[in-house]
Write a structure and sequence with these properties.
The protein is α/β, with parallel strands linked by helices and 191 residues long. It is built from 6 helices and 8 strands. It binds flavin mononucleotide (FMN).
Length: 191
């Protein structure tokens, strides 16, 4: 089973990265598989000049394939102007239309304040639902005051991290066993 986190921030160091790191750490504690992390900030400028999948270089194509191959995907974005950064949306515009179907996705966002906490419901969830992903019910929203040296330290947000991870593990397990029960296990679902 592949677990991949995508930090959709554009800065470094980054609280968004710290948020994804906290979620991946929790997943690593409860899953035998170790999750890996993609820091979009380090490649965002180059992705900005790519207009179609055919224009991707080898490393960019490999990065997209890592996202597409994930069984559990963790996605976190910084709030920019009450939405996600445009370059983050561009990254997911390049993902194959059906690649995330029936994949389990944990949604997270970080803002300067609590004003735009609904970005998860208004922007992230519709995006991933449109791609056919199963997003877990608990969204994780943090703000600047929830971090110490870019590490997520708020106990209430960390509690939501635990809830979302628990939901993701249960959902992934039910999906896998439902398909296995029907004798339909294939490479897409194999652990
Ligand atoms: C261009 C820009 C627009 C922003 N707009 C918002 C906003 O609308 N609402 C908000 O809560 N924070 C806003 N912020 C603050 C960022 O969400 C915050 O700095 C970011 O989540 C910190 O994460 P990072 O360290 O990964 O960049 C904005 C920041 C930038 C640079």
């Amino acid at each position: 089973m592949s677990i991949v986190g995508v930090s959709g921030g554009l800065s470094s160091p980054s609280r968004t990265y710290g948020l994804v790191q906290a979620i991946i750490n929790e997943l690593n504690d409860v899953s035998p598989q170790q999750g890996t992390l993609i820091d979009f900030a380090s490649v965002a400028t180059a992705f900005g000049s790519v207009l179609s999948r055919e224009q991707l270089n080898f490393e960019q194509e490999a990065l997209l394939q890592r996202i597409e191959a994930a069984d559990i995907l963790v996605v976190a974005v910084p709030v920019y102007r009450a939405a996600y950064p445009g370059l983050f949306k561009h990254l997911f515009d390049l993902v194959e239309r059906d690649a995330l179907e029936r994949k389990v996705v944990i949604l997270a966002a970080n803002g300067g304040s609590a004003h735009h906490a609904l970005i998860i419901e208004s922007h992230l969830r519709p995006l991933f639902s449109s791609l056919g992903a199963y997003t877990v019910p608990t969204g994780i929203y943090s703000q600047t005051s929830d971090f110490t040296n870019y590490q997520l330290t708020s106990q209430s947000v960390l509690e939501r991290v635990r809830e979302a991870v628990d939901e993701a593990i249960q959902l992934r397990s039910r999906l896998f066993h439902a398909v296995e029960h029907k004798g339909l296990v294939n490479a897409k679902y194999a652990a």
